[in-house]
C-alpha cells in the first residue's frame, strides 16, 4: 500500500527558487523597522525573506485576493502586528519569522464552507439583512477554523497503483499481503467453516467487531482485530441475517421463524415474535430502529431502545429479500421481483418513491455513504448506478457475465459486487464521483459462492461471507482513514462506550423525521407561512404589512404649497403605475414565449388533436 | 459534531433533537428563586443598589424604616428609622459613601453608608426640610447634584438647602424622576396627569412631553442606549420610547394583567424587569413585546419595586408583604464556577436553542410557564376582551366607506399627544 504525498506538503523546495526571482516590495511601514532589525542581529535578513514569501504559498494567489475568506485572516491582521515591532521581539532580539495567523488554503476553506456565495442575499428588512450578514460572517469564520483544524486529520487514505501499464485488478491478495506491514497483513485472513454453510456477516459501527451467522445455525461474534472470540453458539435453526445493534454488546439474528436478540456472550435476550420469517435486517443507528424485511412482504421497524414496533408497512410486492439503507437519510431501499426499487420511511404508509431499475427482478441494492449513488443489480445481469439527487436516472450501466448477487459500498465510495465465487471491486476517479464500471479495481476468487459482503468501517478491509467460511481481504483505499472519536471510536474503552451509549440514546432521532431530504427540516416552510399570511389578511380585512400610500414630507418654508405637494404625490403615483404596467407587459411576453416554445416542440407534425390544445 | 464534511450527514435532525433536549433540560433546571430577606415591619416601598458593592442593598419601607442588607450573608446589617410615614424614595451617591432618602414627612435626608461608631447616635449627615411631600429622588451619575420630585421637579446641589432650580409643566404630582446614565444632564419624569416629561438640566426648562392613555408609574433609562427609556404604565403595558421620536413607541410590551409599578434595566441594556400589581415580575427583552420569563410565588403579594443587580445575574424585588426576594435573572443558570467542559456544553446548547427556537414543538416547551390561577384566568379574560375589541374594529372597517376609518397600529393607539 502506498500513500500519496499531499500536493500541499511539497511546496518548500519551490520556495527557494521563488526567493531569488522576486524583488522585495517596499512597504510604507517598513521604513523605520528595517535599519533597527539589521542592527539587532545577523539572523533577520533570511527570516525576512521567508516572511515575505509566506502569503505566496497557496498556489492560486489570484483567487486569494478576491476571496473574502483569505483576506480576513491575513490582510487586516498584518498592519496591527506591525504597529509596534518592539512587542514582537523576544528578549533575545529574535523576531517571529511567521507573524500573524497561519495562512489557510482557499480550497480547503471552500470545502468546509456551507454558504453558496453565488446566490445573493434576498431583499429584506434591514434588521433581517444585518442578521443574515452576521450569520454569514460567522459561517465564514467557522469554515476557516475547520480548515485550520484539518491539520489534525493526520491519516491519509491509501490506494493501489500499478506500475505503468499494469492492471491493478491482476494484483492478488497474496501480493498485497506481502507488500504491506505486518499489522496490516494480519487483517487478511480466511476462516474455513465449511460445515455450517454460507455465511452472512456484519461489522459493528466502530469496525472493531465482526459477527457472522451460517445458514445451518452457526452464530459467532469476535473482535476481529485481535481475533478474540466473544461468543460462538449454534441456534439450531436457519440463520437468514445477522446484525449488530447500536453497540457490539447486542446482536440481532434473523432466524427461520422469529427474530432473536443475543448479547455478546451469546445469551438470548429477546425473541421477537412480532417479526416472523425475517429475511433481511438493517439497523438505523441514529434512530435506534431495526428494520426487518420479511417473507410475508412486511417491512417492520422495531425501536430497539424501548422495544416497540414503530411501523409495520406492507410493501404489497410479495416476498422481500433485497434491502439496504441509505446512510445519509435513513430511508430503506427495497428491491422487488418486478424490477423496481421502492424507498420507505416509517412515517409513510406508501413508498416515498419507486424506481424501475431492471427488467426482471432486483437481486441486490446498495447505497453509498453520502446518499448520492445507488447501485442495483438484477436478474437481467446488469449492474446500474443511479443518481439519488432528485433525478433517479441511471448514470452508468454494465452487463456482467453472471450478474451480481450482492453489492456493497465502502465509506470512500468503492463498490463491491459478489458474482458467484468472485468478488469485483470498482473505484471512482476522484472523491465523490461514482465508481466507474469500466475496469475493476480489484478482483478476488473465493472458495465458495458469496453470500454476504460488507466493507469494514475505518479499515481497508472487505469482509466476505461465503459457503466456505468467512474471508477478510485487503482493499487499499476502502475505509475512511480518520475516525470521529466522539461518534464511533474503534479504540474506545468500556467506560467510553457506556458514556457514548447514554449520549446516543438521549439524542435518538424520532422515527417521524425520516424523509428523503434530511435538510428539509432546517428550511423555511414557505407554503404554511404564506397560508398564514393569507388567513390573517382575510381575518382582518386588510393587509397589515402593506406599503402605506406615499405621503409627501413637508419641506422648507414656502416650498410646501398644496400644488407642489399634489405634484409630488402624483409623480410617485405615476412611477408606481408605470412599474405595474412594465411588469404586466413582461409577464405577457413571457407567457407568449412559453406558448411559442410549446407549439414548436409539439408542432413538428400537425395532428388532428392540436385544435383541442389551447 | 465533527468538522469533516463527509461526516456531517444527518446533522440537522440530530441537532434538532439536541436542541429539543436542551430546551427540556432548561425547563427542568429552572429554579429561579434564591432567597427571601425578611425583617421589614411594613411593605417594602423602594430599593437601591450600592454602586460599588454587589453585596449591599438598601431598602425603604412603608413605616419609614430603611434597612441595609448583605446579600452574600442574606441578613440585615443595619436598620435606620429614617422618616415618619413612608420612605418614598431612596438613592445612593455614585461614590457609594452615602445615600439619600425622601419621606412622607417632607424631608430629604442624607445618610452615611457606614454605620455610626460606638456610642454615637444614628443621625443623618444632612436634613433638608421641604415645603411639600417628595415622592421620588434620584442622584446624578457624576456630579454632586440630585433631583427630587413631588409637586415639581427640584434639582439640588448637595451643599445647599434650597434647590438650584425647580421645573414644572402642568399642575400635578410627579411620581418619579430619573437621570439618564449616559447623557447625565438629561432627566425624565412621569406625573399623574398621564404624561412623561423630559428635562435638560442645563436649560432649567422642560424639553418635551408625551401624554399617554393612562398614568405612568415609573420610567427607567436604558444604560447602553442613550435615548431609549421604558415607561411602566397603569394600563398593564410597558412602553419603550426613543427620546427623539416620542409619537410612536419603539415597542409596546404587554403581558402583565395589572398595573405595572416598577421597571429596571439590566446593565447590558438588552432586557428589563418589571414589577406589577398582579403579584408577579416579568423579564422582557427590549425588542420583544412578549415577556421572556415570569416569576411568582405563593407568598409574594403586590410587587412594589424591583432592581436588576449590577452584575446582571440577579433580580431583587420588594413586595407588599414586607419581604425582599432574590431571583436569578436566568432561571436555569447554574451558579458557581463552571468547568470548561460545562461551559462549552452550555454555549453549544445555547446556540442550538437559538437556532431552533422557532420550531413549534420547541417554542411551545420554551414558552410554557405555570401561572397562578388568578393571573391565568385574568389573561383568558383579557384575551376575550381584546378579541371582541378587534372584531368590532374590523367590522367597523369592513362596513364603512374604504379609508374613512383609519387603521391605527397598536403602538400608536395609546399615545394621546406629544407636546414640545
TrEMBL record, chain A:
<dbReference type="GO" id="GO:0030686">
    <property type="term" value="C:90S preribosome"/>
</dbReference>
<feature type="domain" description="BING4 C-terminal">
    <location>
        <begin position="440"/>
        <end position="518"/>
    </location>
</feature>
<feature type="region of interest" description="Disordered">
    <location>
        <begin position="538"/>
        <end position="614"/>
    </location>
</feature>
<dbReference type="InterPro" id="IPR012952">
    <property type="entry name" value="BING4_C_dom"/>
</dbReference>
<feature type="region of interest" description="Disordered">
    <location>
        <begin position="1"/>
        <end position="103"/>
    </location>
</feature>
<comment type="subunit">
    <text>Part of the small subunit (SSU) processome, composed of more than 70 proteins and the RNA chaperone small nucleolar RNA (snoRNA) U3. Interacts with DDX21, NCL, NOP2 and EBNA1BP2.</text>
</comment>
<feature type="compositionally biased region" description="Basic residues">
    <location>
        <begin position="56"/>
        <end position="77"/>
    </location>
</feature>
<keyword id="KW-0539">Nucleus</keyword>
<dbReference type="Pfam" id="PF00400">
    <property type="entry name" value="WD40"/>
</dbReference>
<keyword id="KW-0853">WD repeat</keyword>
<keyword id="KW-0597">Phosphoprotein</keyword>
<dbReference type="InterPro" id="IPR001680">
    <property type="entry name" value="WD40_rpt"/>
</dbReference>
<comment type="function">
    <text>Scaffold component of the nucleolar structure. Required for localization of DDX21 and NCL to the granular compartment of the nucleolus. Part of the small subunit (SSU) processome, first precursor of the small eukaryotic ribosomal subunit. During the assembly of the SSU processome in the nucleolus, many ribosome biogenesis factors, an RNA chaperone and ribosomal proteins associate with the nascent pre-rRNA and work in concert to generate RNA folding, modifications, rearrangements and cleavage as well as targeted degradation of pre-ribosomal RNA by the RNA exosome.</text>
</comment>
<feature type="compositionally biased region" description="Basic and acidic residues">
    <location>
        <begin position="572"/>
        <end position="582"/>
    </location>
</feature>
<dbReference type="InterPro" id="IPR015943">
    <property type="entry name" value="WD40/YVTN_repeat-like_dom_sf"/>
</dbReference>
<feature type="compositionally biased region" description="Basic and acidic residues">
    <location>
        <begin position="7"/>
        <end position="19"/>
    </location>
</feature>
<dbReference type="GO" id="GO:0032040">
    <property type="term" value="C:small-subunit processome"/>
</dbReference>
<dbReference type="InterPro" id="IPR040315">
    <property type="entry name" value="WDR46/Utp7"/>
</dbReference>
<dbReference type="Pfam" id="PF08149">
    <property type="entry name" value="BING4CT"/>
</dbReference>
<feature type="repeat" description="WD">
    <location>
        <begin position="355"/>
        <end position="389"/>
    </location>
</feature>
<dbReference type="InterPro" id="IPR036322">
    <property type="entry name" value="WD40_repeat_dom_sf"/>
</dbReference>
<keyword id="KW-0677">Repeat</keyword>
Automatic annotation (TrEMBL), chain B:
<dbReference type="InterPro" id="IPR001680">
    <property type="entry name" value="WD40_rpt"/>
</dbReference>
<dbReference type="GO" id="GO:0032040">
    <property type="term" value="C:small-subunit processome"/>
</dbReference>
<keyword id="KW-0677">Repeat</keyword>
<keyword id="KW-0690">Ribosome biogenesis</keyword>
<dbReference type="GO" id="GO:0046697">
    <property type="term" value="P:decidualization"/>
</dbReference>
<dbReference type="InterPro" id="IPR015943">
    <property type="entry name" value="WD40/YVTN_repeat-like_dom_sf"/>
</dbReference>
<feature type="repeat" description="WD">
    <location>
        <begin position="296"/>
        <end position="337"/>
    </location>
</feature>
<protein>
    <recommendedName>
        <fullName>DDB1- and CUL4-associated factor 13</fullName>
    </recommendedName>
</protein>
<comment type="subunit">
    <text>Part of the small subunit (SSU) processome, composed of more than 70 proteins and the RNA chaperone small nucleolar RNA (snoRNA) U3. Component of the DCX(DCAF13) E3 ubiquitin ligase complex, at least composed of CUL4 (CUL4A or CUL4B), DDB1, DCAF13 and RBX1. Interacts (via WD40 domain) with DDB1. Interacts with ESR1 and LATS1.</text>
</comment>
<dbReference type="Pfam" id="PF00400">
    <property type="entry name" value="WD40"/>
</dbReference>
<feature type="repeat" description="WD">
    <location>
        <begin position="37"/>
        <end position="79"/>
    </location>
</feature>
<keyword id="KW-0853">WD repeat</keyword>
<dbReference type="GO" id="GO:0000462">
    <property type="term" value="P:maturation of SSU-rRNA from tricistronic rRNA transcript (SSU-rRNA, 5.8S rRNA, LSU-rRNA)"/>
</dbReference>
<dbReference type="InterPro" id="IPR051733">
    <property type="entry name" value="WD_repeat_DCAF13/WDSOF1"/>
</dbReference>
<dbReference type="InterPro" id="IPR036322">
    <property type="entry name" value="WD40_repeat_dom_sf"/>
</dbReference>
<dbReference type="GO" id="GO:1990756">
    <property type="term" value="F:ubiquitin-like ligase-substrate adaptor activity"/>
</dbReference>
<keyword id="KW-0698">rRNA processing</keyword>
<feature type="repeat" description="WD">
    <location>
        <begin position="253"/>
        <end position="294"/>
    </location>
</feature>
<feature type="domain" description="Sof1-like protein">
    <location>
        <begin position="329"/>
        <end position="415"/>
    </location>
</feature>
<dbReference type="GO" id="GO:0007292">
    <property type="term" value="P:female gamete generation"/>
</dbReference>
<dbReference type="InterPro" id="IPR019775">
    <property type="entry name" value="WD40_repeat_CS"/>
</dbReference>
<keyword id="KW-0539">Nucleus</keyword>
